[in-house]
Design a protein that fits this description.
The chain is α/β, with parallel strands linked by helices and 317 residues long. The protein is 45% helix and 19% strand. Strands 1, 2, 3, 4, 5, 6, 7, 8, 9 and 10 form a 10-stranded mixed sheet that branches. α1 packs parallel to α10, α2 packs across α10 and α6 packs across α12.
Amino acid sequence: MRVVTGIVLFVLLLGHSFAQNYPTKPPKIVVGYPPGGSGDFTTRIIADELSKELGVTFVVENKPGAGGSIASEYVAKSAPDGYTILNQGNHAYNRVMYKDLSYSDKDFIPVSRVANGATLLVVGQNSQFQSLKELIAFAKANPGKLFNASAGFGSAPHVAACAFEAAAGIKITSVQFKGGGPAAQSLLAGDTQMMFATSPTVTGFIQAGRMRPFLVSIAKGSPSIPNVPGGDAAGVPGFQSTFWFGLYVPAGTPQPIVRRLHAAAAKALSKPEVQQKIAAQGMDALPSASPEAFADEIRAEAPEIERALKGCGAKIE
């Protein structure tokens, strides 16, 4: 018994010593989406801030594909030493969307949420619709004939569009693209008539006058996206659909390292200037109270995500 206790104590002390020296080389944060969207944006801002807090450059690595599954699988199989970190949403999305995933929740330790976001319903600047009321009226009169540009099955914009259909009592046709960028180009070209998108994807087009926002997917609106009504004010009561990104490390990563990363992320995300940068992209900085609290939040919302995706008729690929 004393031998076992001694071994446990040695491992704990070793982990603590390792964490005190961590990091001694540049860690990388892997994100499963291409540059330009909310996943890439949140990864780059948290990488920059962790670099400042921990004194070593955190490198961003984009591994897009399969709704983030390629990146998740890569991190799940990486050494549990704190040098390979994942920035991703809830894995429940991909559990519904993809068969035979080679990873599961048990392959990760959640560290901290980075930011929450909402999607925007936008139309092209030259759209025939001058208001959300007109768009809904058209959809009711022409079921399935309103074409929505979607960032892909199971994406946050796709889930938002499904929730909007249910709340507004309409039927639209979502055309699936490989990401928000191609979906936006479809809307700009006039091939589709509306689009739910993450704020970083369309903010530039809105500011340039090429798109018009009708709605933000938070019932009461979002202070980070001013002058755009939420569902209640826009005449779609109760409509809400949000998403988030957060940090994970491979299972087996020493707890002292997990806590060091969490503390650094929480401190960084509490800075007013960082919060302002995130708000400028239509998102809200929201660090978790602890790694355990983050894990509890992930588990609690998983059933709701699964119900929403199945209600969308999301395809399993």
